[in-house]
Structure formats: structure tokens, C-alpha cells
Amino acid sequence: MAPYESDHVTGTGPDEDPRTGRRKAARYVVPVAVVGVAAATIGLVPALAASGDPDLPKITAQQLVEKIAKSDVQRMSGTVKVSTDLGLPDLGSLQGTMGSGQDGDGSSADPRTKLTELTSGTHTLRVAADGPEKQKVSLLERDAEYSLIHNAKDVWGYDSASNEVFHTTDQHSGEKGDKRGHQPSATPDDFAKEALKSVDDTTSVTVDGTTRIAGRDAYQLVIKPKQAGSTVRDVTIGVDAKTGLPLKFTLAPKSGGAPVLDAGFTKVSFAAPPASTFDFRPPKGAKVTEEKPGKDDRREHAPDFGGQFAPGDLSGADTIGEGWTTIAKFDTGAKGDKTSQQGGGAMGGFLGSLGDPVSGDFGKGTVFSTRLVNALITDDGKVYAGAVTKDALVKAADADK
Predict the structure, then answer these.
(1) Which of 50, 127, 237, 261 has the smallest C-beta neighbourhood within 10 Å, fewest atoms?
(2) d(Cα 388, Cα 401) in Å, to the nearest integer?
(3) Pairing verdict, β 287-290 and 164-169
(4) What does residue 203 show for φ and ψ, rounded to 5 degrees?
(5) In 40-136, which residue ranges form alpha helices assigned H by DSSP?
(6) To which H or E segment does residue 190 belong?
(7) How far apart are CA 239 and CA 192, in angstroms?
């Protein structure tokens, strides 16, 4: 079908504003936390393999985007497979240096300590939601389980391996207009809505047939950058034909090979989960860490296992370019402190293993690469980062000189 372009968007009726479709999508976008430069992109593996292409009514790309935007699934439960292939070395040895809580300075049940575990390997998540007040996401491990539960104003994290509990309160719970509350950001829906932020003149969006996902009929929406210099080849979203809920999300890099980001349900139900799903009491003998929400509460304790993979939330940084080739610029102020000499121990070795010396009109620096996000750190302390090629970073640094 014809691409859904920003200058060819039409509404569902003759009296609708030509840009209404995109505004509706933006209005329902769920912000996904920015976890870092290289390790920010979390992937979820494909769900069940397609079992035949269902014969569904024809739909345009615009209609499918609006179907996603209008989707209002409040109750659901399911299992999601998680796999990440950023091309990074195993980060398990770095957990202690990145705040795992095992050194006595925090709690292993703090949700922020679990993010590094999802930057490589394969994992299984179990998710459930019953409206804006009740959500749960559990990370199932070989001999243990980590659960993050939001029930009304309470947010609990529990790590069965260490028998530690993390507790804070959600000051936004029940606020008018806050339909989502602390809904778990661990499903294809969250990634899909983040991707829809990129739909503009730099993007082509098409419908690529139908498929079956977790036993349900679905359409396939394909989003492709039109700009040269992006490391993203395309994003494919499997959209439930009945509810409009994204059931599968796949991000493929231009370099080829396995997807970098892949999200899919292996099982899904839209029945209300049992109320007991969201009940939690600290087990006997568990170490409980209480944390009071700060005045500048940004919901950092929400069950948010997502990451930035497309143009969107670059708050706090200057930006260069637009669309898929947007580059974030930071100035660390560490002039004269060469990146090759920065950081010791595990983190220094990790960065050194990724580094690639480069030079240009800007001077000298080092590019740290993954299969998706690349970052150029110059010797005068400037950082240029984005889902763009190394050449695009060097060109941006030269132009910014």
C-alpha cells in the first residue's frame, strides 16, 4: 500500500484536520525512559512464529496508525519473551559498579538495578494490568523471580534471589487525566507508540500484509527511515486486528543480522487478571528499603524496561539534524581528558573494548559503537550520540566546530 507520509495524511472523514491522525497518535504516546547512550536500547524477542496469514479486511497505513492510537486496552495479562542483541559484551560483571545494590549501597529490588540485566541475553517477562491503578511485571529467572507491582499508590519491587524488597509511593496515582498511572512499560505497545513519534516527513509507513501472533489475527505495520545515515533499517509492528493493541515489535538494523529490538507476546489474554495478582506483602525476613518520592518526581520507579531507539525524547540535550538522524549533543566539560584515559576498572575496560579512534576538523575523539546507537566522545569533552552511523557523527562534529 502507499506509504503514510506526513504531507499525505488524511483523516477518517472529510471534515477532519489532515494532521489529526498524527496528533491522535502523539496524544496516546507512552514516554519510554532513556537509560543511557549505548545500553539504553532494550529488545524483546519475537513471539510465536506466524501460523498462516489471516484474510482480514483491507486497511490503510493511516487507518492502522489511528487504530493503534485509539486502542484502549485496560485489562490484560500475558507472557513476553525478551532478547537483546546490541552487540555489547556481557554486562553482568558490571552490575556491581552500576548500582546493583549488592555492595550495600542500595537494594537489589530497586527497579533501576534490573535495567542492565536486560541489555543482553534472553529473558521472559510476565505482565498484567487492570486499569490505571494496578499493573505488574515479573522478570522470570532460572532460580529466582523479580517482580515490580503497582497497586494504587504503592509501588513494590521484590527480588526473590536476595529476599529484598523496595517500596515507594506513586504520588500521581488517581490523578485526573492520568489513565496510565504506572503501567508496565514492558510490552510491544510501549515500544510501538514510541516509534510512532518518528512518523513525519523523514519516514515511510506502509501496511505489509497480515500475520498471526500469540494465536490472534494481526496486521503488520512497517516504519522505514527515508534518510541516509540512520542505523535503523525498519520497524515492524504486529497490530491486533480486533483491539488495535500492538502484539509484536521488531526493530532491524541496517547492518543486517538478528533484530536489535524485538517484542512479542507468546501468550495474551484480555480478561481481567485476578485481584490477588496485584497483592503484595513483604515476605518474612525480607530486607525492606523505603524510598520517599522526591519533589521532582519523574516516575523513575515505574515498571519501565524500555529505551530510546528512535527520534523523540532528547530532553536536556542540544540536538543536531532532524528525524531519524537526530544527534544529541552534550558537553561534559572534561576538556583535555582523553576518553582513552577515562574510567578505570570494569567500566573503563568495557568502554575501551568498544572504542574506535577518529579524527576530523573537530579534532580527535573516540566512537563507541553498538548495532544501533553510536556515540562520539571528543578529546575536548563533547559527546555526539544517536542512532546514526559513525560517519554521520563525525560529520556533525565537524559542522559543529
Answers:
(1) 50
(2) 19
(3) parallel
(4) -130, 140
(5) 61-70
(6) helix 188-195
(7) 9
| Average pLDDT over every residue of 228-242 | 95
The residues with which 169 forms a beta bridge, in sequence order, are: 154
Helix residue ranges per DSSP H, 339-389: 345-354
Dist CA 237 CA 190 (whole Å): 11
Cell numbers describing residue 282: 513483604
Helix ranges (H only) for 30-155 are: 61-70
Residue 14 C-beta-side C-alpha neighbours within 13 Å: 0
Extract the C-alpha cell encoding 234: 525498519
Beta bridge partners of 135: 129, 150
Alpha-carbon span 318 to 389, nearest angstrom: 19
Residue 356 confidence (pLDDT) = 87
Residue (of 331, 311, 332) closest to 386 by Cα position: 311
pLDDT digits (tens, 9 = 90+) for 167-217: 998 766 555 444 444 445 557 887 787 788 777 888 999 999 999 999 999
Exposure string over 146-155, b if 16+ CB within 10 A, otherwise e: bbbbbbeeeb
Residue of 296 and 44 predicted with greater confidence: 296
Instruction: Write down the residue that cell numbers 486499569 correspond to.
Output: 131
Quote the Cα angle for 145-146-149, to 5°.
130
